[in-house]
UniProtKB/TrEMBL annotation:
This is Y-family DNA polymerase. PANTHER family: DNA REPAIR POLYMERASE UMUC / TRANSFERASE FAMILY MEMBER (PTHR11076), PROTEIN UMUC (PTHR11076:SF34). One of its GO terms (molecular function) is damaged DNA binding. Keywords: DNA damage, DNA repair, SOS mutagenesis, SOS response. Coiled coil: none annotated. Residues 11-195 form the UmuC domain. InterPro entries: DNA/RNA_pol_sf, DNA_pol_Y-fam_lit_finger_sf, DNA_pol_Y-fam_little_finger, DNA_polymerase-Y, DUF4113, PolY_HhH_motif, Rev_trsase/Diguanyl_cyclase, UmuC. PROSITE patterns: UMUC. GO terms for cellular component: cytosol.
Length: 435
């Protein structure tokens, strides 16, 4: 058994409860206590549910026509998705979280990690968060805190599910008996970042619970599985070793963002960064055969500096669910133009794809001739995207894409000491000289 004691770090995960339904309730209090469902683009199917709707066993993805009768009878309330509202309320929640910790990392539209290391009483901070966020925004939240992100995720689950906890669950140590008991019952597939496929493989080696994974030999895990699996095991042991870039994408979201090498106010620079992130996100999206229904674009200045601060995020619905890089880049850049402001030195920009659904052919028009024309068009776009992905897989990441980005742009990562990309970049292949 390997155990690395490390109780100095303390990470909180703040999660908005039933976020979309809660946003709808803020401005329509009649919805409080009622079963509320939020519909996908064009009112296709359910993409978010209030607790009351979940209790009625109405599943995610249920098509509108199956529940329209319930709505007409007044048994349930339905709302079309309103991403502009959700994006704005999300930004307000994040703004309040900034008051509690200098290290806030947005993880999805309704979740953020807070660094609480060295703070006197994590419980007290969690209590204040659970009290203040709903008072200021109308959105109820729950908080789980523990020495690592993966354990914070476990704690957050308990905070939400166990009513007696009043939305708060704090584990000061990875050796908390209650936590160990819970890890003993937590199925391997349900651990953050493991999932079904890896879970099946781990089960073949007799690792069936979170506790068994944490107690497995970490080097063996690295050899037989991968570094991320080893890291997950270390995280379960209380070692905080995941940066936000390593964290698994939130369910139904894909997030791409990064801090810039140098802060910049140039809209051109930011547009370039957004274009880059949107492309990476779309590549991931197509790999998992999904379609995004909305996007969230965010920018922020460096909060550790004494200079004018600006932080904003905006969510927007796509006209149809899509995996098309060109379309998503265009929308993302339009959103960026709305939130960018002169006079601020931005340090980070990101794109998040929201409410991902499995790929399916879209209904493209009412009439046959319209459908055929649009189908041909869509077919061509899909081919183009797949060709791009294939070329990038073969030649190297970002070999082909939309728009050129300058090698020395301010928004790019600092990599002054990077060795040449010998095997993936044509320009950096080693050169052999014979005299
Ligand atoms: Mg949530």
């Amino acid at each position: 058994m390997s155990f690395i004691p490390c109780d100095t770090s303390m990470i909180a995960l703040v999660d908005c409860n039933d976020f979309y339904a809660s946003c709808e309730r803020v401005f329509d209090p009649r919805l409080i206590g009622r079963p509320v469902g939020v519909l996908s683009n064009n009112d296709g199917c359910i993409i978010a549910r209030s607790a009351e709707l979940k209790a009625m066993n109405i599943e995610m993805g249920t098509p509108l026509f199956q529940i329209q009768a319930l709505e007409r009878k007044g048994c349930i309330a339905l709302r079309s998705s309103n991403y502009a509202l959700y994006g704005d309320l999300s930004a307000r929640v994040m703004q309040i979280l900034d008051e509690f910790s200098p290290g806030v990392e947005r993880y999805s539209i309704d979740e953020a990690f807070l660094d609480l290391a060295g703070m006197q009483s994590p419980e007290e901070i969690c209590r204040q968060i659970v009290h203040k966020v709903p008072v200021y925004t109308g959105i109820p939240v729950s908080v789980g805190a523990a020495p690592s992100k993966t354990l914070a995720k476990v704690a957050s689950h308990l905070a939400k599910k166990q009513a007696g906890r009043k939305g708060i669950c704090v584990f000061h140590s990875a050796n908390d008996p209650e936590l160990i008991n819970w890890l003993n019952t937590l199925a391997i597939e349900h651990i953050w970042g493991i999932g079904k496929r890896l879970g099946r493989k781990l089960r073949q080696h007799g690792i069936e619970t979170a506790l068994q994974l944490r107690e497995a030999d970490h080097n063996w895990l690295k050899r037989h599985f991968s570094v991320p699996v080893k890291r997950t095991a270390m995280e379960l042991n209380g070692t905080n070793c995941l940066t936000l870039d390593d964290t698994p994408d939130p369910r139904q979201n894909i997030m791409c963002s990064r801090s810039f090498q140098k802060a910049t106010n140039s809209l051109t620079d930011l547009k370039e960064a957004i274009r880059f992130h949107a492309q990476t996100a779309c590549q991931k999206l197509r790999k998992q055969n999904g379609l995004a229904q909305a996007i969230l674009v965010s920018v922020r200045t460096n909060s550790h500096r004494f200079e004018p601060q600006h932080k904003e995020a905006r969510a927007w619905a796509l006209p149809v669910a899509s995996d098309d890089s060109a379309l998503i880049i265009r929308y993302a850049q339009e959103q960026l133009e709305q939130i960018w402001q002169p006079g601020f030195r931005y340090r980070k920009a990101g794109v998040m794809l929201l409410d991902i659904i499995p790929w399916r052919p879209m209904q493209l028009g009412l009439f046959e001739h319209q459908q055929k024309e649009k189908k041909d068009q869509e077919h061509k776009r899909r081919n183009l995207m797949h060709t791009l992905d294939k070329l990038n897989d073969r030649i190297g990441r970002d070999a082909i894409g939309f728009g050129l980005s300058r090698e020395q742009a301010d928004w790019k990562m600092k990599m002054a000491y990077r060795s040449p990309r010998y095997t993936t970049c044509w320009n950096e292949i080693p050169v052999v000289k014979a005299n």
